[in-house]
Design brief:
The chain has helices spanning about 25-40, 40-50, 65-75, 80-90, 95-100, 110-120, 120-140, 170-180, 190-200, 255-275; strands at about 145-155, 165, 210, 220, 230-240, 245-250. It is an alpha+beta fold. It has 3 domains: about 20-140, no CATH class; about 145-160 and about 215-275, no CATH class; about 165-215, no CATH class. The strands form 2 sheets. Strands 1, 4, 5 and 6 form a 4-stranded antiparallel sheet that branches. The N and C termini lie far apart (about 60 Å).
């Protein structure tokens, strides 16, 4: 056999459809698509999303079924960014087939995902999650005999600079300036405030006294590396028999495992067993 050498490729003006590359498909995505189609997934999610769109006179949007399938791809393939999801969907023939996009069709880009995510409410996303669990129940894929719960801290989309005192509404700099003046530092500069804050004893940023002005539901938490962040606590409950997520809950960052575990398990078992 002779050595093959890479040749320069030039674009063609016209390409016959029969000459376009095709994928043999992916067994998992193919089976999932058949399951969704049998359950009328697309029609149901379109009905859920219809109130969030204008009348039929506007330009048609990306079908909701395509949007949620792209979210499935991100979950199944461990992609945590919308850019990454959009790139993966555009690059794979098998996933394009899963999305229902033809060989010459254009897959949605990351900005389109952002627009749709902002348009649809969190309640719609939760309803679609419940719909998928309902399909799993209908196909007897859920066992709910052994449930595993895992939790992780998530950084809130808010900076520590946004925290204010609950009693006075002062931001941290204003509060620090008052303490410095009480300590005898008249008209302290920003450098003076930083040195004063670094050296003063008993410094504590308590959730009882402070909250974020931009995200009041977040909580101040000290991370493992010693830094202080505004955070949330995310928990997932999984049916270990089939590794299906049956609940995904968000709690304040300072809530202990014993406080959050019961709520997550209750939601998971209710979602998995309800008819």
């Amino acid at each position: 056999m002779a050595l093959g050498r890479k040749s320069k490729t030039t674009g063609k003006l016209f390409v016959a459809t029969a000459d376009l590359p095709r994928s043999a498909g992916h067994p998992f995505y193919g089976a999932l698509n058949r399951l969704l189609e049998e359950s009328g997934f697309d029609r149901k999610v379109e009905a859920m999303c219809e109130p969030f769109y204008a009348d039929q006179r506007g330009r048609p949007s990306i079908p909701p079924g395509v949007y949620f399938r792209m979210l499935f791809v991100g979950y199944f393939e461990g992609i945590d960014s919308q850019r990454g999801i959009a790139w993966r969907c555009a690059d794979s023939f098998a996933i394009r087939d899963f999305l229902g996009i033809g060989l010459t069709g254009k897959s949605p880009d990351h900005s389109s995902l952002t627009i749709i995510r902002q348009r649809l409410s969190s309640e719609v996303h939760e309803s679609v999650f419940a719909l998928v669990l309902g399909i799993a129940r209908e196909k007897k894929l859920l066992q709910v005999k052994t449930i595993a719960v895992d939790a992780t801290l998530l950084d809130a989309n808010a900076a520590m600079k946004s925290i204010v005192r609950k009693d006075t509404g002062d931001d941290y700099k204003t509060y620090l300036r008052k303490l410095a003046k009480e300590a005898g530092i008249e008209d302290p500069s920003d450098d003076d405030l930083r040195r004063f804050d670094r050296d003063r004893g008993g410094k504590k940023t308590s959730n009882d006294e402070w909250e974020s002005k931009t995200d009041p539901d977040s909580r101040v938490m000290k991370m493992k590396d010693g830094r202080t962040h505004l955070s949330y606590k995310a928990e997932h409950a999984i049916d270990l028999e089939n590794e299906i997520v049956i609940a995904a809950t968000i709690h304040p960052g300072n809530r202990s495992d014993t406080q959050s575990l019961e709520a997550t398990l209750t939601q998971g078992t209710r979602s998995a067993k309800c008819t």
